[in-house]
Amino acid sequence: MIQLQNIEKVYRTDTVETLAVNGINLNVAKGEFLSIMGPSGCGKSTLLNIMGLLDEPSSGSVSIDGQDTSRFKDRQLAHFRNEKLGFIFQSYHLINDLQVLDNVELPLLYRNASSTERRRLSEEALAKVGLSNRMKHFPSQLSGGQRQRVAIARAIVGRPQIILADEPTGNLDSAMGNEIMDILMSLNEKEGTTIVMVTHDEHMAGKTHRLVRLFDGSQVQ
What pTM did the predictor assign? Predict the structure, then answer.
C-alpha cells in the first residue's frame, strides 16, 4: 500500500544543513498496522508527513497504492490525499468555532458530496467512535479523549484506505489512550484500514503488527 524508496529529507538554511531522514526504504502492506518509534528529533514525524504527501522528500520516491506520487501536480496531489489518506494528530487540530459534526464533515467539503450525504457519513463516523451524543457540542466542551475521537471520526469520514496517526495517544492518560488504540485496532481489523502510527509508547507499539525504529533519521530496526 505504501512504498518508500531511498527517501532522504534535507532542511537547509544559509549556514546549516540538517539531514532529517536518511535513506529510508520501507514497504507497508495493505491492511498492516505499523508503528514507528524513536527519540525526539529522529525524523519520525518528517517521515510520516512524507508518507502523507504533506511534505516532499529531497530525494527518493513515494508510491501509494501502486501510484508514483512524484508525477502528481498540486491539484492531483490534493485530490489523491483527500481520497486515500486520513490524518490524526496529537494536538487534534479541531476548529473550536465549529460543532463536532461540522468538524467531522470538513474533508467531505472538498468532494462533490451533497449536504445530506456529508451529514450521513459524518454521523456514521461519529457512531463508530462512540460520540453520536456529542454531535452538537463544540470542541471546548469535550475532554481530551473525546476530542481525539472527533479527530479519528474526521480522519475516517471519507473512508480512506490509509490512516496516518502522529502520537494519537500522546496527550492522553493510559486509560483514554487504550480506548483510542482500541478504536484504531478495530478499524484495522474489521475494515482492513492500513494504519501507520508514530508513538513514544512501547506498550501501544506492542499492539501493532510491526515496529520500525528510527535514530538520527535512519532506520535501525
Answer: 0.92
